[in-house]
Amino acid sequence: MSAETLVQLLYLVSTALFILSLRWMSDPETARKGVFSGVAAMTLAVAGTLAGVIATGGTHYWWILGAFALGAAVGYPLAQVPLTAVPQRTALSHAFGGLAAGLVGTAKFFLYFGQRNEAALAPFIVVALVAEVLLGFLTFTGSLLAAGKLQEVKWIPQRPVTYPLQNVSNLALFALALGLGVALVLHPLAPWAPWAFGGISVLSLAFGVLLIIPIGGADMPTVISILNAYAGLSAVAMGFVLNNKLLITAGALDGSSGLILSVIMCKAMNRSFFNVLFGAFGQAQTKAADDEQKVYKADTTESAAQIMEQASLVVIVPGYGMAVAQAQHKVRELYDLLKKRGVTVKFAIHPVAGRMPGHMNVLLAEAEIPYDDLVEMDEINGDMPQADVALIIGANDVVNPAARADKSSPIFGMPIIDADKARTVYAIKRSKNPGFAGIDNELYFLDKTFMLFGDAKAVVGELARKLAGEGGH
Amino acid sequence: MQTAHSEAAAAATGGGHGQLDFMGALFVFMLATFIGLMVIQRVSRLLHTPLMSLTNAISAIAVVGALIVSAGDGHPGYITALGLVAIFCSTTNIVSGFLITDRMLKMFKKQEKGAK
């Protein structure tokens, strides 16, 4: 058996294991098997590649080993971050993925150019190289910026940054990059080709920044998913350049995952891809200022605890505020105390609650809340009229009834959790300011709504204490 | 002679395993995308965050390309350096991606019957 055959066989098994890995993610019961299968697939891929490299006379093994060791040394602590920082970590890791693809593309181009290798710079390959570098570098800077926004790094603006002719100037730059790409495909060995290639790289790095600065925190779940898809597609492009089917397959799996998640996120916000990327959301919607006479009804945790104790169904709606306050463990205490009193407690999870797809589920799982009680929006909404209490913890836009009724609202048409249909609504809110989208929430002014102002962790903790205290009497 | 030489160079240095086959590559891409879409549609919504960190690790398959670039004999030093940085980036993703996915998945537990 030739070395080449061995390599391809290893790649074949690796591909199958990657597919199985994602297949096993369909159920929390089998999901961990998916991780093992992924690790096995990656190990085979690296082993196969090394076998191929050795057979064709490779070198630099010590350097390579060093790069592996350094990567592992940085990767290990990155896997130990608190779960509230998972969105940042994910964005950062998209950045690494994009950078790796972009660098390999750059290396390949200059290698072929230096060799005057006309066969290797066939039009198809150059197209793939340009795509790889464009997607790779764009994902790199875009994800870095997204990670910075999520980490709330001081000098990175949190609010969307917009300026006149933003989309026009972005499109002009994109056309320029496209023009350079076409020129490169037609004349890959021209003396100016390295400059054109460099120009594309610089423009791609700039695109990453330009695409992310106008995007606000509420859109982060969608943006992270789109960047995920880009990172996958850049791996596909690399596969085309290297004519490597394993790269193409694994990249396509990643790309389609990012695509599906983006579509789910967009649907959950009733927006299109185009709208997320080009229609800066959250631009000050200050028109609500004139009906400021609306008043919140605040309530004490004591009476809230009493009402919840007598309820038969309590639905908790968590949002980003719960993550910020790290309140999930206190929520678990509350959940336990209510359950002990025979109250049914369910969590209503909106697809875009938090800063990345599935963010709330992970936080609540960390607090050891059984996943059977985490209910998706579409399933819980039918039960909302039977709920005695809806307890909203740091969520805002995902329970705003304006999305159903008010055509002038920027979130009109977005599917929401029908918290307003519960008999009583308690909302824990840090301050009286409107939520991330900058929109007032009518829910807070309903007759049946009571506000509990304060830090989510402190308020939930107090609720739990009140419940526990009364049990002692 | 000239083309034969450069093709040999591409095979050795580029590690383009097998013959260049654009159409074959496109077919693989198309089929893999369909498989990906179908498999991922079935992923439980509970697990979307771990799914993303798992696919993060999977997209670090770029390590294959990075390895081929860095190990090539007779490449200029800067090419090898670019490849090594790419290996570093991909390994970071492989290690952190798989580890954090497993860490998260361990937390997902079902209702224990009869437990406290």
UniProtKB/TrEMBL annotation, chain A:
The chain crosses the membrane at residues 6-22, 34-55, 61-79, 91-114, 120-147, 168-186, 192-213, 220-240, 246-266. Pfam families: PNTB (PF02233). Residues 8-464 form the NADP transhydrogenase beta-like domain. Keywords: Cell inner membrane, Cell membrane, Membrane, NAD, NADP, Translocase, Transmembrane, Transmembrane helix. It is found in: Cell inner membrane. InterPro entries: DHS-like_NAD/FAD-binding_dom, NADH_DH_b, PNTB-like. Its main location: membrane. It catalyses: NAD(+) + NADPH + H(+)(in) = NADH + NADP(+) + H(+)(out). It is a multi-pass membrane protein. It comes from the Bacteria. The transhydrogenation between NADH and NADP is coupled to respiration and ATP hydrolysis and functions as a proton pump across the membrane. Belongs to the PNT beta subunit family. This is NAD(P) transhydrogenase subunit beta. The lineage of its organism: Bacteria, Pseudomonadati, Acidobacteriota, Holophagae, Holophagales. The gene is pntB.
TrEMBL record, chain B:
Its EC number is 7.1.1.1. The keyword NADP applies. Residues 26-110 form the NAD(P) transhydrogenase alpha subunit C-terminal domain. It catalyses: NAD(+) + NADPH + H(+)(in) = NADH + NADP(+) + H(+)(out). It is found in: Cell inner membrane. InterPro entries: NADP_transhyd_a_C. The keyword Iron does not apply. Its main location: membrane. Keywords: Cell inner membrane, Cell membrane, Membrane, NAD, NADP, Translocase, Transmembrane, Transmembrane helix. It comes from the Bacteria. The chain crosses the membrane at residues 22-40, 52-72, 78-100. It is a multi-pass membrane protein. The transhydrogenation between NADH and NADP is coupled to respiration and ATP hydrolysis and functions as a proton pump across the membrane. This is proton-translocating NAD(P)(+) transhydrogenase.
